[in-house]
Amino acid sequence: xxxxxxxxxxxxxxxxxxxxxxxxxxxxxxxxxxxxxxxxxxxxxxxxxxxxxxxxxxxxxxxxxxxxxxxxxxxxxxxxxxxxxxxxxxxxxxxxxxxxxxxxxxxxxxxxxxxxxxxxxxxxxxxxxxxxxxxxxxxxxxxxxxxxxxxxxxxxxxxxxxxxxxxxxxxxxxxxxxxxxxxxxxxxxxxxxxxxxxxxxxxxxxxxxxxxxxxxxxxxxxxxxxxxxxxxxxxxxxxxxxxxxxxxxxxxxxxxxxxxxxxxxxxxxxxxxxxxxxxxxxxxxxxxxxxxxxxxxxxxxxxxxxxxxxxxxx
Amino acid sequence: xxxxxxxxxxxxxxxxxxxxxxxxxxxxxxxxxxxxxxxxxxxxxxxxxxxxxxxxxxxxxxxxxxxxxxxxxxxxxxxxxxxxxxxxxxxxxxxxxxxxxxxxxxxxxxxxxxxxxxxxxxxxxxxxxxxxxxxxxxxxxxxxxxxxxxxxxxxxxxxxxxxxxxxxxxxxxxxxxxxxxxxxxxxxxxxxxxxxxxxxxxxxxxxxxxxxxxxxxxxxxxxxxxxxxxxxxxxxxxxxxxxxxxxxxxxxxxxxxxxxxxxxxxxxxxxxxxxxxxxxxxxxxxxxxxxxxxxxxxxxxxxxxxxxxxxxxxxxxxxxxxxxxxxxxxxxxxxxxxxxxxxxxxxxxxxxxxxxxxxx
Lengths: 314, 360
Ligand SMILES: Nc1ncnc2c1ncn2[C@@H]1O[C@H](COP(=O)(O)OP(=O)(O)O)[C@@H](O)[C@H]1O
Ligand SMILES: [Mg+2]
Known about the structure:
The structure holds two protein chains of two kinds. By secondary structure, chain A is α/β, with parallel strands linked by helices. Chain A has helices spanning 2-7, 49-56, 78-84, 100-108, 117-123, 139-151, 169-184, 196-202, 220-225, 245-250, 271-285, 299-307, and strands at 9-20, 23-34, 38-42, 64-69, 85-88, 157-161, 188-193, 205-210, 213-218, 231-237, 254-260, 263-268, 289-296.
């Protein structure tokens, strides 16, 4: 995948900035998305993901910076770019009174070399709903239809803004299948999400965005490896007063420790050494455990270690 | 492009053209909205039926008068005299109940007879019906009391189609209906699309913006043909409203007028983001025209200083041109001043609206 970045870039963004009054939404952001790559912008609400992606889509004006995709800029050839990209916005309500097929036929009519409606219906698994009014669709079905509208023009580059936000787990998995299939056809995807599991599952490479800047980038594996810890230990204790974060960090196999809303999180390298060391320490302080959990390190842990905050604060 | 399996693609037909698809969507949205169908087709017909019946020409003018005598035990002298006339319906009442009856419109006039036998009429001179009643009642009274007419006269009633109230009404209601469906049709649709972020979604595609706007005008054109047929057809069949001008000219006036009203609708919908905002704007534009543009009564009733303003309104121009066509058989050449006013509004509305239009 790394080689693909140099072969021909799907999207190149340099020094992007955008403010709304006093609010700096995007603050000097760079991106490189390779051909055939699924690239994720991961960050909490308000990080500037939507603003960034909508500037790339040519829907929002930027204050400064450069955007080039598929070898062109919006200033050079907006019509050709519109033919070659597919877009699903964060929030669009398609017209309730139309059916699924009618909606797709409308979007299809805008493109020079579109797919057949039936082809896209199969891609997003909405064949049975082809003649149903949009008002009768579930949230997940509506969201897949929105993606179908982005796919109908046979795009080379697909932009998806929060494709699974608000969906139940089963609908999310169906959406992931749709995205996987598009990726398998050899095109590029830029998606935004605030779900770390989604980014980890779907994306070849990720940029973690916070306050309008990229604070880390790489493959999910690289990002997690950058923690230097494979495991996370979380525990709660009745004897909080007796526990010292500095001492925790000194324990064998423990790399870092933090206290968050009464729960301690420890980054650990070797669980089989770290857990006994922790138990011995707590026993020596007379602080009995009330809860103990361990899990493999995730992108969420990367975000917490970088910012001290969680991806989903609200 | 390294496509593993190229999906089958059906060749394109005329149905796949975006202007066709965009227009089809407009029709589907309209036909699947029962309320819109009611307001556009049924309501104007019901209104015409109601007003046409309420103001139908009566064969002979009759006046309903409340007679109040000073002494209610004495036989009403005036009442007896008036009862001899066919044109007068007499109701004996006390002063209080007579005033009540006048206020509620059950009588048009009160005739009060004092102890000396003098009659005084009590009525609102601004009410046409009351002024007429005063003339009829006084005439009947003087005649019954023995007045001899110095000049012999007779009445020859004209109730032929073309000069009745309903004839005046039908073209006006057509104009009003075209205004309403144009302003609502475009203004509301644009705000709805903007509110749902569908406008933004559409410009994220390679959609042609001129074709997008054209689809609204085409669908208006088709719907308006049915509006004209429903309303004019009803007027002709039920009230025998005349169609003296050419039907093509009538349709041309309706289409051209509707184009300017759609422009007003587009103007109303250029920026508004909520349904409330667009309702307020639409009403602010339409209400003055309903009053001033001679829909229910002739615009010539307004003072002379207001006339240039009243004449410049698009609805006045449309109403006047429709009436001239239907009632006087005027040609398009004869309604050029009105067509000029409409043309001004068409150009002004679209130029401003397209310049200010917001897709987000
Ligand atoms: N149209 C706008 N007007 C004013 N502020 C905006 C607008 N769009 C976004 N913002 C602000 O910019 C910041 C980034 O927003 P956004 O790009 O939507 O973030 P994300 O998609 O990551 O949640 C937020 O603080 C948001 O309030
Ligand atoms: Mg967003």
